[in-house]
Amino acid sequence: MSRPGQPAPISSALHGDEGSPVKLHGWVHRTRKTGGLVFIVLRDSSGLMQCTLNKKRLTPEEMDSADKALLESSVELEGTLKKDDRAPGGVEVQVAKFKVVNFADRFPITEQQSEEFLLDNRHLWIRSQKLTAILKVRHTVFGAIHEYFRREGFYEFQSPILTPTAAEGGSTVFNVDYFGKKAFLAQTWQLYAEAAIFALERIYTIAPSFRAEKSSTSRHLTEYWHAEMEVAWGGLDDIAKHAEGAVSHIARSVLEKNLDDVKALGQDPRKLEAIAPPFPRLKYAEALDLLKKQGMEVAWGKDLRTIEEREIAKNFDRPVIVTHYPKEIMAFYKPADPASPKEALCMDMLSPIGTEIVGGSVRSLDVEDMRKRLEAEGESMENYEWYFDLRKYGSVPHAGFGMGVERMVQWLLNLENIKDAIPFPRTMERVRP
Ligand code: 4AD
Ligand code: MG
Asked: How far apart are CA 119 and CA 102, in angstroms?
């Protein structure tokens, strides 16, 4: 809320009483001129307000500056509220005082523009109605993740971004020249989280992760925000429950706090209402059976491709948890299921649009097995000795998962491309602006 004499947010002015005085500041979203009138639709972070400037109430200088103020000029004004059914929120301001803070140059973004042009001008496009709505939902998603884990008794813990190892495989790691030595940008917090559970037991984070993915798809970023959790004394069922709980809490929060944004972005709120526990669970082997019934044959041992994930997900109105992938094709730290050694104790959560939104697993305690795997991948063991230490000093069963925050936002808002789920996307082709 605003202090007396200070400009009010448009959203609160829209609810003011007829005839009450208002002071606003913001940007020119649209203008229209007829006779002695200038209509300015003013935009601020909270909404849009029609403001009417009448030459009978303003000085010639004020009318002249309103006339010259192009789109996106920043302005301050004062006036009184008047009901008007033709105005966007049913109310308008009859302006009594008007000042341009900065006359904008001709704004380069007009109506019909290519995705590439909008990405090149991201620094300007970010103020669009579309991106503003997405950024507000993103804000809610981040808040909901913190709420969920803190409510569940997790500590927030931070891991380093500069690391000596590639936890998720060498092919997608960014190299950094670290004073003449080799270092990497973190793909995950996981190895450090596994150290920290011995202090804090239940931990989570939201941090940037980096993947040098040579895939330009609608769901890959090279820099993304990663919500991760790790629990001591926990197994596959515990992390599956938390993944389900966190995702459901995020969806509920977005419905509660951003219904207007969800609708403005063209997403059907009923899609979000459906997201509640329990989520369906399938083993990888069962997923293959399902695919076969749907006419897609996948040999046991092959990782699921996007089209197959989409085919599985389309059977459900909420995310589906697929567990027990073949151990052979999984990261080195995913252990075998003692009851079925060819299967790993791991899970992926697939959204109804077929994207992997969560990946997690139990953590292997078998140092020899991990050593073999890493050696086969050409990793240098000295970098992992500290990690193996964790299995020596009071080792406990533990598990964790990572959630791609942009994958969540993309799915919740049904965005065509993940690039719109992050303010300044980094992809294979783009590191600017
Ligand atoms: O499945 P991933 O690779 O798992 C891990 O990194 C584990 N160490 C996490 C853990 O157990 N703590 O990544 C986790 C999630 C994926 O499910 C996906 O949602 C997201 O991170 N993700 C990406 N999001 C956007 N762009 C990319 N290139 C992504 N790669 C992974
Ligand atoms: Mg994964």
From this structure: 25
